[in-house]
Amino acid sequence: MSTVQIQNDKFYQAVTYVFKSWTALKLAVEMQWGGVDSEDKHDWLVDVVVEYFGKHGKETYAEDVESILQQVMADEFNTLLEDDSAYQVSKDLIKLYAECIEGNYSSIDLLRSRHATSVNNNIASSKKVKSQLQIEDDDDDDGENEDTEIIDAMDTSEDVSSNNQNKMYSSKKEPIIDDEGFQLVTKRRK
Q1: Is the pTM of this model over 0.70?
Q2: Domain-embedded: residue 47
């Protein structure tokens, strides 16, 4: 592989990692604001940006890249960016492109490791949530009726509230705390 091809491949990876960590674009893809082909539009945007940098090289300006990003987000994902994120992403891409031209891929390697860590954390979180949901489902099947638990809790709170009402008339505006540590909310008399 030639040096230019390696630089192009590395920059393509860099754009992909930056876009996958850009919250606005990530949400637009995950929520399918661009329709069912949102993921394809994401990939197409990566190609457009890489091609733009390929044509303009070091003569690429952050404002121009920002304009492209804002236009694509508006046209393809129906998203108006009111924050400064498109400009920040543009500056990051210009910096990464300059590093690729110099043969410095350390920032791209850092992006890759962050992306891998993020993916691994998401997978671990997903497994944890799934196991918690499974445990909750198992708890629901152990024969106890939730309605009975709610009624029992209501009976307990009624007993506590009747005791607390008697105390309420004898004391002035002091908070009434039940046995479980909750403050009783009462109506004010006129």
Answers
A1: no
A2: yes
